[in-house]
Design a protein that fits this description.
The structure holds two protein chains of two kinds. By secondary structure, chain A is an all-alpha fold. Chain A folds into two domains: about 55 residues, no CATH class; about 210 residues, MetI-like fold (Orthogonal Bundle). Chain A is about 70% helix and about 0% strand. In chain A, helix 3 crosses helix 15, helix 6 crosses helix 14 and helix 9 packs antiparallel against helix 12. Chain A starts with a helix and ends in a 5-residue tail after the last helix. In chain B, the strands form four sheets. Chain B has a six-stranded mixed sheet with strand order 6-7-8-3-9-10, with helices on both faces. Chain B is elongated. The two termini of chain B are about 35 Å apart. In chain B, helix 2 runs parallel beside helix 4 and helix 3 packs across helix 4. Chain B is an alpha+beta fold. Chain B has nine helices and 20 strands. Classes of the chains: A mainly alpha, B alpha+beta. The interface between A and B is medium-sized, with 16 and 26 residues.
């Protein structure tokens, strides 16, 4: 016994060395990956059903095997959903709604982010009198349920002649995006070192020069976050869309509802599924394209009082 | 000629008085250091001079012009910050030219000034780089360059070396001193590092609680601190403070020891008596043979030895109080040794126990 403990080479061969070996099928791994797989299936299964259903013809759907892949792939439902499905009065499919949504989303996103970023910048760096009160009011605004404000806004829009107009909806979206976006930008700009701001002032830059030349170029991640929040939020909005527009300017979500919930004739499940996927495609693409930047920005502008 | 004049400046944040009716007169070309612990208002004062903070009361003049209400850019100042504060998305060149572009300086003039600045600070090869590609020392050099390029009358430094490691700090310290000798601009430099203050300053303003405690040449502050705070803040290792009282003679008594004070020059003519604190710097205490010839000497026992390379700090008891003194590193001293130490009471400082003022 004594000999073996004294022999260094024997110790070296038997003692642990280098990285600790890890078993692939340890209970920990089984539990971890098992949970992840179950959750992933839970979320992906409905999407799978939607995709396969949208690729089937109606006779095949009536067989009732919703999980089976299509025997005969057809893109007919997609074409119909996009171009010819009837929504109330019009029969030109979702295409009209798509372009309406684009015309609502793009200006709303640009307007709301432009205003909110300047708001956040002013609140974070130019401590004007009453800044705290202003900020508190803005944040409280985020907690008031939208439903309370729907009717007053209808009247206000009517009075300024924008009711039923796309621009009316753009303004509504911009205003409702303000609290959370301002908070997001304020927190991000607060995390920018104050000395940078002071240095720019000594260098003779004013309010706008500091914002445009110093702050903007530094804040790409937070702008990406804001864009994602706004694009998905505004694109997915149904309530404001149905209240503040007219049938010929309905956004895509409202049209989708009209297609899916139309009561005359046969329920065309394949067209409904295709229409739903088409409507959800824009936020989906936005997430996939900007996933990494999104996480970075969320971490940077983490919502802290 | 006065370059920067601060007259009766106060600053309150709510009910907190950060600066209390402060006066400061900085002659042209002087290197003034504002020294104090954190929270003493030194950076606040600098920010007021720069125009980054509005004063609650008082006036600030730069080059004879009242700039109290002026924007920072119109005050003829350049500022260097602790965290460098370089614009991260711009190259070094972009950083240097940003202020000039804002001021509408013509392009060829900008080029000329950048070339000159790059030559002075030796940052020529870095001009096309981004700040993230620079080391800490290079960044601070660029930050100094940004102030330099604007051709200003007054340079303001806000703890510029505090983010650097010890070696770089001493290198850049020398460089800043060289820069001052070459440019001869007025410079106001904020630091909490007394070594920086001693080495750089023409005059030091020691601050505490929004008030300047003492404003004088470094050597004068070191030798004749006006109060116990200043005495303890300057000097490393710190000054020894020994509680006792001044009695007739005059002499300072602590425990069984009596230090004759006939060589000490009291502030004011009349002699003081009563409770007092004797302050003596570790480097002013001699030891061994040298102590025999000192005006005052005393036998003590070594309690602790701290070798510091160049010299050794020895701790002992003096009239029941801790006392440290400095000896050459070569002297062999061990714990328990009985040694003779001595000092010249003329080099000591005596403070009033209650108020802490020099007497």
């Amino acid at each position: 016994m004594a000999d073996t403990t004294l022999d260094p080479s024997a110790i070296a061969a038997s003692e642990p060395y280098g990285p600790r070996p890890r078993a692939v099928f340890s209970p920990r791994n089984i539990f971890l990956y098992g949970t992840l797989i179950v959750v992933a299936v839970y979320y992906l299964l409905p999407l799978y059903v939607m995709v396969v259903t949208s690729l089937k013809g109606m006779p095949e759907i009536r067989l009732g095997n919703i999980f089976s892949p299509p025997m005969e792939i057809t893109f007919e439902p997609w074409v119909k959903a996009w171009a010819t499905a009837c929504t109330g009065l019009n029969c030109d499919g979702l295409s009209r709604g798509f372009w309406n949504s684009v015309r609502i989303t793009v200006p709303s996103v640009i307007l709301s982010i432009a205003i909110a970023s300047v708001n956040g910048y002013a609140l974070a760096n130019w401590r004007f009198k009453g800044a705290d009160i202003f900020f508190t009011i803005l944040i409280v605004g985020a907690f008031i349920p939208y439903q309370v404000m729907i009717y007053p806004i209808v009247i206000m829009l009517r009075e300024i002649g924008l009711y039923g107009n796309l621009w009316g909806l753009v303004i509504v979206h911009s205003i409702f995006g303000m609290p959370i976006l301002t908070l997001l930008f304020r927190n991000y700009f607060t995390s920018v070192p104050e000395e940078l701001f002071k240095a720019a002032r000594v260098d003779g830059a004013g309010f706008w020069a500091i914002y445009l030349k110093i702050m903007l170029p530094m804040s790409l991640p937070i702008f990406v976050v804001a864009i994602i929040l706004q694009v998905t939020g505004i694109w997915n909005d149904f309530l404001f869309g149905v209240v503040y527009t007219r049938p010929d300017t309905y956004p895509m979500t409202v049209q989708l509802n009209n297609i899916v919930n139309s009561v005359q004739g046969v329920k065309e499940y394949n067209v409904n599924m295709a229409a739903t996927i088409l409507t959800g495609l824009v936020p989906l693409i936005v997430y996939f394209v900007s996933g990494k930047l999104f996480v970075r920005g969320i971490a940077a502008g983490a919502v802290k009082g | 000629m006065t370059s920067v004049l601060v007259r009766d400046v106060s600053l309150n944040f709510g009910s907190v008085e950060v600066l209390k009716s402060l006066n400061l007169d900085v002659p042209e070309g002087e290197f003034l250091v504002l020294l104090g612990p954190s929270g003493c208002g030194k950076s606040t004062l600098l920010n007021c001079v720069a125009g980054l903070l509005d004063v609650s009361a008082g006036q600030i003049f730069i080059k004879g012009k009242n700039v109290t209400w002026e924007e920072p850019k119109d005050r003829g100042i350049g500022m260097v910050f602790q965290s460098y504060a370089l614009y991260p998305q711009m190259t070094v060149k972009g950083n240097l030219s940003f202020g000039l572009k804002n001021a509408g300086v013509p392009k060829d003039e900008i080029e000329k000034r950048i070339a000159r600045t790059a030559e002075i600070l030796q940052i020529g090869p870095l001009l096309e780089r981004k700040p993230s590609q620079l080391s800490g020392g290079q960044r601070q050099r660029v930050a100094i360059g940004r102030a330099l390029v604007r051709d200003v009358d007054v340079f303001l430094f806000d703890e510029p070396l505090s983010n650097l490691d010890a070696k770089l700090r001493s290198e850049l310290r020398v460089e800043i001193k060289r820069l001052h000798q070459r440019l001869a601009n007025t410079m106001i430099y904020v630091t909490h590092d007394q070594i920086e203050a001693m080495t750089l300053a023409d005059r030091i303003a020691v601050m505490k609680g929004g008030v300047i405690q003492q404003l004088d040449a470094p050597q004068a502050i070191y030798n004749r601190p006006v109060n116990r705070f200043v005495a303890g803040f300057l000097g490393s290792p710190a000054m020894n403070f020994i509680d006792g009282e001044v009695g007739t003679g005059p002499a300072f008594k602590t425990g069984s020891i009596s230090v004759p004070l006939d060589r000490y020059t009291f502030d004011g003519a009349d002699s003081h008596t009563g409770p007092a604190v004797l302050g003596i710097r570790p480097e002013h205490i001699s030891f061994g043979d040298a102590a025999k010839s000192a005006p005052f000497s005393q036998q003590v026992q070594v309690e602790l030895v701290e070798p510091m390379g160049s010299d050794t700090l020895v701790w002992t008891k003096f009239g029941g109080h801790n006392l440290s003194f400095r000896v050459e590193a070569e002297k062999p001293l061990n714990v328990g040794d009985q040694v003779l130490i001595g000092f010249d009471p003329a080099r000591a400082s005596i403070f009033d126990t209650a108020a802490g003022n020099r007497i």
